[in-house]
Specification:
Two copies of one chain form a homodimer. Chain A has helices spanning about 10-15, 20-25, 35-45, 55-60, 75-90, 105-115, 130-140, 165-175, 195-210, 225-240, 250-265, 295-310, and strands spanning about 65-70, 95-100, 120-125, 145-150, 160, 185, 220, 245-250, 275-280, 290-295, 325-330. Chain A has about 350 residues and is of the alpha/beta class. The longest helix of chain A is centred in the first third of the chain and has 16 residues, at about 75-90. In chain A, about 50% of the residues are buried. The first copy, chain A, binds a DNA duplex (16 and 16 nucleotides) through helix 2 and helix 4.
DNA sequence: ATGAAAGCGCTAACAT
DNA sequence: ATGTTAGCGCTTTCAT
């Protein structure tokens, strides 16, 4: 933005008012007469005036900007969430700063710091697992924030999410009720990822309550990719004592497992049941369709925006209620063989 | 950011230097003695100082911020691209403003305007189809920009992309060479989407050069979803005179079509050949695997970042060369029946 | 309802 | 190599 660019003083001069009035007129302050508001608006229009956000932010101490730090966009579930978040924010004239950390906590701290430096009015994070230094910064700079995709049992942080553990318990129960006894699980990397750990814990809880447990070998952690899900599944199917139910902590792995079974000639659900988590569009198209726990991906983004927007209006809003997940039973689950 | 937050003057005082020196020390300017640089750094560290980006932007006329306006994140190809873009920018200490417009040109203009208002140092756009008012703004505010996912034949705009038309011609040629004569095509909504129109034009060109053409009925435009691709395919398969080759302008539609065939009991590629465009991870997993034109999604994001970063360094860089696409022949293509 | 004036926190000449 | 000084373009008291 250089010298040739019209600034507020130009607009003011053209409209024949002071800068202060022009400023008020443009921010729709009720303090200006409709007639002068119009004159200013016309002058701005005519000059092609665009406010200088940095100057405005410096003077007003608000940037009109919200940051989001997510693991990655290479997972459709986050992409969907972020898309909804951005759209909701845009409706309220807020812009979204997006940063991803690819599951590295140090990167996360660094990018979050940079967003704070950019004067974001608020920050969206994913999950509850974060460097204490990050929470300290948030506190120090008084940046409102919300954690998403999880709930905080200690209620120390505002969360827009759902109970990953309870949801996973529900998944396991469905399988247990079908009569399964030999379980295996495929999940993402648990380190620095509370969602994964909670889902695994939920499955363990459910099994334990029926006198079962997940052996050391029965849990495979993999990065998120269809291929990785397939590899894990092949590993399980290679064993002399195959599991009859493979619980996947996310749909990406489940879909990979599904394809692997097709390639292996393993019949789903007759020989093995598979469950996913998240519910992606494609999960419904597979044959048999993937049984999964649907999570409200877009709703998460929308709700996070809504919560933050309310807070930024100064409303001391209640800690939001957990969102609901939904068990979607399709064709990959059935009673175990025999 | 409020009164309690440490500012540069606090750092300066603590380090026993002037604000100017503190400023220089923190921006690694070579003008300060190593010893004082260290003192300042320590003071900043101790105080938990974080620069005020808006103030810095106002004074320096650079925001350290780049904007991207994309159609949507609900299409994995853009998500992948944006992810790579963001990561490349972060490495250079730039932050990414992300906005999507869901294929609405008015929304695009509006969000772009807002990004310019946020003082982005540069802007990334998708495609060549944009409101002239948008290009005018870019010009007026001297915002460097780059168009992605396409090339500009008139060479009026810098582009990081590939030749959609030539790529589509190549797709059609492969099918023609296999002996296909009855074609149909599924694509996204062409209005305001040059990538779609170019791909369709490419197919038409290729057919025409062999004395064929795509009838009015043989082209179905649909929003992007697996389901929509399936619907279009069902429509084609319902016809008395079925096409022997269905060219999809993107993998999402192709995958939907693939699943529809499975549901319909239509055998691919014996009864019908299908081709995609983009190459998504799942395309390789389908049985038969989807034959498609691979586009360098992550590379697009990286290259866009690289180009803009160079320009922002003041280097007058050449208009970048088109990127290469790659024909990936898998199992959904074969000679037509009979 | 409008104007005058004082910054917001930082950088960048310009000095030295 | 460091300090002094003048803004960057806007908002916001405080007057009137």
């Amino acid at each position: 933005m250089d010298r040739t660019t019209p600034k507020l003083s130009d607009v003011a001069r053209m409209a024949g008012v002071s800068e202060a009035t022009a400023s008020r007129a443009l921010s729709d302050s009720q303090l200006v007469r409709e007639k002068t508001r119009l004159r200013v608006a016309q002058a701005a229009e005519l000059l092609g005036y665009v406010a200088h956000g940095a100057a405005r932010a410096l003077a007003s101490r608000r940037s009109g900007t919200i940051g989001a730090v997510i693991p990655t966009l290479n997972n459709a579930i986050f992409a969907t969430s972020v898309n909804a978040l951005q759209q909701s924010l845009a409706q309220a004239s807020y812009s979204l700063f997006l940063a991803s950390h690819e599951y590295d906590p140090k990167t996360e701290l660094e990018v979050a710091r940079r967003l704070i430096e950019r004067s974001v009015d608020a920050l969206v994070l994913v999950g509850t697992d974060h460097d204490p230094a990050l929470f300290a910064m948030l506190e120090k700079f008084r940046v409102p924030y919300v954690l998403t995709w999880a709930i905080d049992r200690q209620r120390r942080h505002p969360c827009i999410g759902f109970d990953n553990r309870a949801s996973a318990i529900e998944v396991a129960r469905h399988l247990l009720d079908l009569g399964h006894r030999r379980f295996a699980m495929i999940c993402g990397i648990g380190a620095h990822n509370d969602r994964v750990r909670e889902r695994v814990a939920g499955v363990r809880d459910a099994l334990r309550s029926r006198g079962l447990q997940l052996g050391e070998q029965d849990l495979i952690e993999k990065p998120y990719s269809f291929a990785a899900g397939g590899e894990a599944m092949r590993e399980f199917m290679r064993r002399p004592q195959r599991p009859t139910a493979v619980i996947c902590a996310n749909d990406v792995h489940a879909i990979g497992a599904h394809f692997a079974c097709a390639a292996l000639g393993v019949e789903i659900p007759r020989e093995v049941s598979i469950t996913g988590f998240d519910d992606m569009e494609i999960s419904a198209l597979l044959r048999p369709g993937l049984t999964t726990m649907r999570v409200p991906k877009a709703e998460l983004g929308r709700a996070a925006a809504e919560y933050l927007l309310e807070r930024l209006k100064g409303h001391e809003i209640d800690a939001p209620e957990p969102l609901q997940v939904e068990w979607v039973e399709r064709g990959t689950t059935a009673a175990p063989p025999d």
